[in-house]
Amino acid sequence: MGPGDAVDGRVFHVKLPGQDAMARRADEHVVPTRVMLPRRVTHGPARQVGKRLLMALLVLAATVLIVWLDRAGYNDNADGKVDLLDAVYYATVTLSTTGYGDITPYSAGARLINVVLVTPLRVMFLIILVGTTLEVLTERTREDFRLKRWRANLRDHTVVVGFGTKGRSAIQTLCATGLPKEQIVIVDPASKVIEAANAEGFTGVLGDATRSDVLLRAELQKARQVIIATQRDDTAVLVALTARQLNRGAKIVAAVREEENAPLLRQSGADAVITSSGAAGRLLGLSVLSPSAGTVMEDLIQQGSGLDLIERPVIKAEVGKSVRETEDLVVSVLRGHRLLGYDDPAASPLQLTDRVITIVRASPPSGSGPSGPSGPSLPHLPPHRP
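Request: output the structure for the sequence above.
Response:
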């Protein structure tokens, strides 16, 4: 799909801003698709192998030193004497269990040292080599097992397309409401971005999110919600179309740069569209007129501190009451497909099937939910599709 294509019989023209990373990489090369789970080890494979190689060399050096210090108890069939080169040779063939028999310990002390020291060093040397080999051979098997277990246990998760400034901010807000990192999957075409996401504890899918096979690797068909935070509006439209085709019930939220592209995102399947440039501009204008009001608005959209704006269902104790009679400060009532303001006469009395959007005091870090002491703890609300 491109600019000027039709959606549901209507033709929209997408206004294109500058290039973003996703488009540039698509032009340069085909991005390989793979799922990258957060690594449990703190060191890379090269460092692991290097560390074990150093341990093997230390064991070899210790064996050479033992043989050299006790060289009088050894016999070389060639000349009868054991020099430093002979000690290195004997240690090497002994640790590798080759044992040609040309250099042998003949004294009781040398044989005792071989039993007490050299034999354990030989076993340690073999363990290091075999352990390194087995780790290399089983790494792929272990990763495949982790991937299968991850796919089997993952459901009702959140897929975030794009791990830039907008994507990171959205994830921070979700985590502030109590969503665990294991329930977030990031899709991005840049390997360094996915590696950064893995370092922060998130699962990443490397690939172009406009392709259905990439979104399927992110298990989008089982996701509860999708956040589209790409840099280009046309990319966001393609991702929204693909995501909605794969999952009819997921809640899709997308960000666009140009406000005139918002209707196209909604036609493509997005439940909510945020105009990043327009929202920032309106916040700037409000801050100019009233810096305090701008600070309050920024506090409301920043979850986990100060005041939080949350959506929750009406509790039984509030049924039949007026909007103004609730303990929380209700700003809107969601009734079916209608969003009613707090001052709308139809908003009161509240019904059991209603959902209210309220302003509550954010809970402290040790709290159990985002709504604080005065409101119910509802970090994982079921999605609502208008």
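The longest helix spans residues 108-153.
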